[in-house]
C-alpha cells in the first residue's frame, strides 16, 4: 500500500473529512488532497 493510499484509508477509517484532517495536522485541505493523490511528497 502506497503512502497516499494509507493516508486516504486511515482518514476514512477515522471518519475525518479532508478539512478535518488538514486542521488537525496544521496544513491546508489542498495539501491533504495532494497527499492522497500522490502529487506531493512533502
What can you tell me about this protein's structure?
- The two termini are 18 Å apart.
- The protein has 42 residues and is an all-alpha fold.
- It is built from three helices and no strands.
- The protein has helices spanning 3-13, 18-25, 29-37.
- The mean pLDDT is 93.
- It is flat, with a radius of gyration of 9 Å.
In short:
This protein is flat.
Furnish the topology, listing elements before pairings.
Elements: H1 3-13, H2 18-25, H3 29-37
| Gap between N and C termini | 18 Å
Briefly note the structural class of the backbone.
mainly alpha
How confident is the prediction overall: mean pLDDT? 93
The helical percent reads: 55-70%
**Molecular shape:** flat
Largest sheet features: none
* N-to-C series of helices and strands: HHH
- The number of strands is 0
- Put simply, the count of helices is 3
Unreliable stretches covering 5 or more consecutive residues: none
What amount of the residues lies in strands?
Answer: under 5%
Rounded Rg:
9 Å
What are its keywords?
42 residues, mainly alpha, flat
Amino acid at each position: 500500500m502506497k503512502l497516499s493510499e494509507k493516508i486516504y484509508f486511515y482518514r476514512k477509517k477515522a471518519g475525518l473529512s479532508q478539512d478535518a484532517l488538514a486542521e488537525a495536522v496544521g496544513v491546508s485541505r489542498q495539501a491533504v488532497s495532494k497527499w492522497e493523490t500522490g502529487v506531493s511528497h512533502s
